[in-house]
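User: I'll paste a sequence; please echo it back and then give the predicted structure.

Assistant: Echoing your sequence first, then the prediction.
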Amino acid sequence: MREVEVDSDLCLTVQVDEGGTLQIQEAELEGEALPLDAEIIESREVLIALAAAHNGWYKSNSGDWYYFVNGKWTVGWKAVDGYWYLFDNAGRMLKGWQSNGGNWYYLRTATNVPNAGPEGSMVVGWLSNGGYWYKLNDSGAMMRGFHADGGYWYYFRTANNVPVGGPDGAMVANCWIEIAGECYAFQPGGQMRTGWFDDGDHRYFLANSEIGIGFNSADYGKMVRGLCKIGLYEYFFNDPANIIFFAPDGAMIRNNPYFQFLTPDGIIVAGIIDGNGHVHRTGIKSLNGDAPEMVDTRIE
């Protein structure tokens, strides 16, 4: 233990523990003991005296943390022993969600809470908080929008309740979402679905390599609408902009005895759809009014 003189009347008895953290043990004013409350131990005069006497961590008896360097308390970001911390303008170490420089960060609220690391240190990677999952990049900034991780795509809300109920930055899971007019589906673990997906009584297809859409393509995971060849067969997925069936948007159509649709290259195609959803074309004609050229283009 040693003494730190604040002024001619106020004297502090302090101790530095094995971890290098300074704490006040006693305070005396003109020889009389004072309570170690925040009004005294976090006053500007006391902080100036302690900063002049100690480099490193100071934990006040009210539970607030400060970091002193060369006679000053730290303000803003500071890296200590490989971890990043954020301090307010009064020098107090911040915890929990904090907005800084246009980004959100999460600082541990206690040692190893929510995951391994010192109290107050910045979290990176996955974060579970308040019943939602978040992803914090290597700089600690909370992610928004689409992000790939471990071979899957995830989507993190871009604002409160956008696109579905939940906080800004929270991962969407076990739901459909619509972004810029395109629909996507997500597993209970948040992974974006691709390929065939049965939802209730309807079947959908989410774009992937089976139809030539690569993992890094902007179209990856989009719900397919209209005619699409998958494997050996063509299928038709309800497309209100082209032809409307009594089915949800994007649902695969089955058991339709006759239909016509317009292909992207301006060809009207007629056909039937069997119980497995396989499209069998029975005729085509051009838009110039020529009579239909009845041909059998079904895929067996």
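The chain has two helices and 24 strands. The first helix runs from residue 38 to 41.
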